[in-house]
């Protein structure tokens, strides 16, 4: 059997087949980087009119989960910056700060994320900067640092302590503090709330680092999963807010998905080819063995893993179609207290009219004086309402702090 030749250069032996096309290593690397550079085109080195000194670089914040895609994106950004430095005599169009939210209190990494970040800092500290945020910052109610996040009852008695928290077990916390995610019974809701917490932390980090753009390593496969998952979770209205480039996710920060044209398998292969596999240490989400126990996200990961190999166009169709959806929430004046998505009116009222369920956002400690409740109650979107409905206490809501408020927390 003769070795298959790379279809691009017709010279080297193919080492990887993607979208049914055989690639040699250099051609594959160029192909994948080309997709990233297309998305990052606005961040080239520019010169003001009649000036020979370039415009100062824009600081971009990379949400580095240490999964294959964000690690691949980090490598591409580093190479992109190196090319700019070489071509423009040291000047760059952007600067990168990579931020990792340390989730080791809720899920087991394959090795210490702090050690991995230290190694990355040693290796690329001259090109970009790194920051690590403990997940518990979300709960540090009265701390001087990121304490602007949460308000709610007795937050000091909660923590992210149970390794099983993001999993399906009914494991009870053994520590004095009880695990906040254990208060939510449903697996899908748990996962949903955890991702909202992580996103809140990285958005806050972007504000803190004065970065107007937050980069996410989500691949086309991940974006497609998110479209279907949001739909299934009753969060369809927030699809544009969750997958669109340049969408404002806070007063001063927009999001960008430079990997939106790249499949998950391609990102994994790329990271491995470039020798970055050792930094892919994100806790592998082990889907429940029993179908009944799977979260919506587990089911969709499995679904897209199968179709992205054989029918890649289906994946891109899901994302492109969803990207055309009109954002009907942009004009709305109320925002969900938990995830920050805009909502039209109180979905809870509408829900109460059709069901007899009460939500968990009312403080059980407080007398049910309806005046206090309506005055102080936070508005939740339908998705967060469903996610916290199984919580047995008031879920903490991150107040949407202004940029000034967040920065003032950091002043010495
Ligand atoms: Zn080739
Ligand atoms: Zn919400």
UniProtKB/TrEMBL annotation:
Xref: Pfam families: CTU2 (PF10288)
Major subcellular site: cytoplasm
Positions of transmembrane segments: none
InterPro entries (UniProt xref): CTU2, Rossmann-like_a/b/a_fold
Subcellular localization(s) per the UniProt record: Cytoplasm
Pathway linked to the protein: tRNA modification; 5-methoxycarbonylmethyl-2-thiouridine-tRNA biosynthesis
Domain of life: Eukaryota
Keywords: Cytoplasm, tRNA processing
Matching SUPFAM superfamilies: Adenine nucleotide alpha hydrolases-like
Classification via PANTHER family: CYTOPLASMIC TRNA 2-THIOLATION PROTEIN 2 (PTHR20882)
Protein family per UniProt: Belongs to the CTU2/NCS2 family.
Function: Plays a central role in 2-thiolation of mcm(5)S(2)U at tRNA wobble positions of tRNA(Lys), tRNA(Glu) and tRNA(Gln). May act by forming a heterodimer with NCS6 that ligates sulfur from thiocarboxylated URM1 onto the uridine of tRNAs at wobble position. Prior mcm(5) tRNA modification by the elongator complex is required for 2-thiolation. May also be involved in protein urmylation.
HAMAP family: CTU2 (MF_03054)
UniProt name for this protein: Cytoplasmic tRNA 2-thiolation protein 2
Gene: NCS2
């Amino acid at each position: 059997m003769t070795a298959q030749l790379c279809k691009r250069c017709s010279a080297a032996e193919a080492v990887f087949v993607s979208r049914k096309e055989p690639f040699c290593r250099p051609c594959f690397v160029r192909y994948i980087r080309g997709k990233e550079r297309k998305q990052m085109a606005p961040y080239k080195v520019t010169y003001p009119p009649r000036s020979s000194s370039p415009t100062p670089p824009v600081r971009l914040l990379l949400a580095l989960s240490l999964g294959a895609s964000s690690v691949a994106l980090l490598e591409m950004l580093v190479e992109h910056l190196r090319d700019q430095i070489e071509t423009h005599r040291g000047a760059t169009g952007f600067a990168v700060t990579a931020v990792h939210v340390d989730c080791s209190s809720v899920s087991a990494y394959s090795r210490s994320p702090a050690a991995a970040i230290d190694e990355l800092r040693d290796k690329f500290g001259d090109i970009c900067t790194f920051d690590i945020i403990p997940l518990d910052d979300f709960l540090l109610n009265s701390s001087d640092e990121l304490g602007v996040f949460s308000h709610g009852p007795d937050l000091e008695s909660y923590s992210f302590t149970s390794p099983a928290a993001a999993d399906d077990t009914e494991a009870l916390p053994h520590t004095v503090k009880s695990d906040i995610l254990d208060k939510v019974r449903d697996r899908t809701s748990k996962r949903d709330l955890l991702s909202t917490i992580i996103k809140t932390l990285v958005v806050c980090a972007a504000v803190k680092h004065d970065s107007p753009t937050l980069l996410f390593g989500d691949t086309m496969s991940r974006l497609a999963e998110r479209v279907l998952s949001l739909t299934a979770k009753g969060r369809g209205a927030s699809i544009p807010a969750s997958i669109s480039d340049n969408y404002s996710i806070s007063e001063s920060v927009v999001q960008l998905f430079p990997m939106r044209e790249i499949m998950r398998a391609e990102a994994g292969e790329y990271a491995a080819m470039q020798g970055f596999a050792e930094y892919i240490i994100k806790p592998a989400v082990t889907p429940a063995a029993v179908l009944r126990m799977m979260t919506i996200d587990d089911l969709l990961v499995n679904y897209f893993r199968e179709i992205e190999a054989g029918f890649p166009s289906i994946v891109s169709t899901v994302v492109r179609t969803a990207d055309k959806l009109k954002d009907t929430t942009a004009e709305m004046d109320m925002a969900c207290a938990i995830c920050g998505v805009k909502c039209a009116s109180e979905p809870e009222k509408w829900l109460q009219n059709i069901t007899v369920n009460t939500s968990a956002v009312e403080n059980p400690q407080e007398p049910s004086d309806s005046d206090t409740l309506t005055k102080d109650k936070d508005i939740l979107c339908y998705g967060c309402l469903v996610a916290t409905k199984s919580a047995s206490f008031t879920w903490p809501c991150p107040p949407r702090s202004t940029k000034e408020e967040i920065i003032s927390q950091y002043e010495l």
